[in-house]
Write a structure and sequence with these properties.
- 16% of the residues lie in helices and 48% in strands.
- The chain is α+β, with helices and mostly antiparallel strands.
- The protein has a single domain (23-112), classed as Immunoglobulin-like.
- The chain has a 5-stranded antiparallel β-sheet with strand order 2-9-8-5-6, with no helix packed on it. Strands 1-3-4-7 form a 4-stranded antiparallel β-sheet, with no helix packed on it.
- Strand 5 and strand 6 form a beta hairpin.
Length: 114
């Protein structure tokens, strides 16, 4: 019984430690024709890994990741609802932009550090 309690405490401590590494990225909108869908897009950065999850069907979404200065661009087009993972090689400030089929645009800003 003591072993089980010890393992539970260690596992919970590890879970908290791992989840402290990632940061949620606030999604904002720039161009919206209808009801804002920013709450349907979730993005997190964990080290050099950008994870994007779409919570509803938004159609074929264009995703662009670039440095805050406009370099190192990565593009991907994905059907939704779906998830996408990007590996961000270099440290620095980045912007991820989402363009929906109707032209609505959303973005999030984030930092990558070692």
């Amino acid at each position: 019984m003591l072993l089980l309690i010890t393992m539970t405490v260690c596992c919970n401590a590890t879970t908290v430690l791992l989840s402290d590494k990632h940061s949620d990225i606030q999604i904002k909108h720039t161009t919206v024709q209808g009801v804002p869908k920013d709450s349907s897009i979730q993005a997190t950065i964990d080290g050099h890994t950008l994870t994007v999850v779409f919570l509803e069907n938004l159609g074929q979404v264009q995703i662009q990741v670039e440095t805050a200065l406009g370099g190192d661009t990565q593009y991907q087009s994905t059907p939704t609802p779906n998830g996408v993972i990007f590996n961000i090689t270099n440290t620095g400030s980045y912007i991820v932009t989402f363009t929906l089929p109707n032209g609505d645009e959303y973005y999030g800003e984030f930092e990558v550090s070692d």
